[in-house]
Amino acid sequence: MTDEQLLPQLKSKYGGVIAAAPQLGIQLQNVHMENGKLLIRGKAPNENVKNEIWNRIKAVDSSYSDLTADITIDASLPQPAAPGGDSGQRGGQRYTVKAGDTLSKIAQQYYGSASQYNKIFEANRDKLNDPNKIQVGQELVIP
Question: Whole-prediction pTM value?
């Protein structure tokens, strides 16, 4: 398969990572094929954000053999608000539930471990009564 044929497949496979990068504060510079792999190049504002994007990459494919991610740190970028900061709101990111999601699947995506689902459940007790009953369109706090 040529790079041009592979590009849409790999962009789809890693679409969640590519979409999450700007939300996390990563400035993407390149997303294209290079040497038969999808190349994602960008700048993260700090080490935590860089680690978060890597966790998401590994959640998609732990071997990421079809991907080259070149994420550098640029401390001059705007720093994301720290979870639990003094914003007055509960800390954490927001996630909108999609069809097929479970708290375990979301925990795997954010923490790299499905067994961490209870963190999300506890942070959303105001809107969830049962960790097995989430609804498409619900907005959850990811602590």
Answer: 0.57
